[in-house]
């Protein structure tokens, strides 16, 4: 995909700030440090479009990125960061739920999972929670460059089995270091967005 335009439209905390265009949207979620910003930057060929995990204490926002005046990528703040207070976590939950349940143009969620480890409790909860709302999910298994090539296939299969993914959902092994999985990721993204 040739990304001629990729820019932050708005950092929103609630529905009154969501963009008004009726473009199809894809949201990106994952544990802090999973490689979500790197993924967004890699596939849009930008160095600093999405920025690395927001610091605790800072306002967590949904970042809407205009891609080619065609669709929005929505960066959801990372979860699972140990130092986040209960209150902050609850606010995060409300903001995400409000978005996920009300946004009609949301076509799916790209859920990023660190391929080096078994999925965390939070990852499994997130997957099941999205499924509960019947959201199509594309799993991206990040940092596969860190896994020995001979073990990769078995390792990935194991992760997919633990998550017990729905037969309609797809997964893409990915590395922002090598660019592996980039074409496949775009293929699946376009399918979800129908663009
Ligand atoms: P975020 O918190 O999910 O946005 O994660 P970042 O994209 O900021 O990445 C967290 C850390 O993981 C950074 O140090 C990245 O350089 C590193 N990282 C991200 N993706 C990859 C990858 O595919 N391979 C490797 N080896 N490191 C990665």
Automatic annotation (TrEMBL):
* Statement: the UniProt record of this protein carries the keyword Manganese: no
Judging by the UniProt lineage, the source's domain of life is: Bacteria
- EngB-type G domain residues are 22-195
SUPFAM superfamilies for this protein: P-loop containing nucleoside triphosphate hydrolases (SSF52540)
Q: Does the keyword Hydrolase apply?
A: no
Tell me its cofactors.
Mg(2+)
Q: Which Pfam families match?
A: MMR_HSR1
Keyword list, A-Z: Cell cycle, Cell division, GTP-binding, Magnesium, Metal-binding, Nucleotide-binding, Septation
What the entry lists under PANTHER family is as follows: ENGB-TYPE G DOMAIN-CONTAINING PROTEIN, MSS1/TRME-RELATED GTP-BINDING PROTEIN
Q: What does this protein do?
A: Necessary for normal cell division and for the maintenance of normal septation.
Checking HAMAP family in the record gives: GTPase_EngB
Would you identify the family this protein belongs to, as annotated? Belongs to the TRAFAC class TrmE-Era-EngA-EngB-Septin-like GTPase superfamily. EngB GTPase family.
Write the protein's name.
Probable GTP-binding protein EngB
The species this protein was found in: Geomicrobium sediminis
**In the record, what lineage is assigned to the organism producing the protein?**
Bacteria, Bacillati, Bacillota, Bacilli, Bacillales
């Amino acid at each position: 995909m040739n990304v001629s335009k990729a820019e932050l439209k708005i950092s929103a905390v609630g529905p009154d700030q969501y963009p008004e265009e009726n473009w199809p949207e894809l949201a990106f979620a994952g544990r802090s440090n999973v490689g979500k910003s790197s993924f967004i930057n890699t596939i849009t060929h930008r160095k600093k479009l999405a920025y690395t995990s927001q610091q605790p204490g800072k306002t967590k926002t949904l970042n809407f990125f205009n891609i080619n005046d065609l669709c929005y990528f929505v960066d959801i703040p990372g979860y699972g960061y140990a130092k986040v207070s209960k209150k902050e976590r609850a606010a995060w939950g409300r903001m995400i739920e409000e978005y996920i349940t009300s946004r009609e143009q949301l076509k799916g969620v790209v859920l990023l999972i660190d391929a080096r480890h078994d999925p965390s409790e939070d990852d499994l909860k997130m997957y099941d929670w999205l499924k509960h709302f019947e959201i199509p999910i594309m799993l991206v298994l990040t940092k596969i460059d860190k896994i020995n090539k001979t073990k990769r296939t078995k390792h990935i299969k194991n992760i997919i089995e633990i998550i017990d993914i729905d037969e309609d959902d797809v997964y893409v092994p990915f590395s922002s270091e090598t660019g592996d999985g980039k074409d496949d990721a775009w293929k699946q993204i376009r399918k979800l967005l129908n663009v």
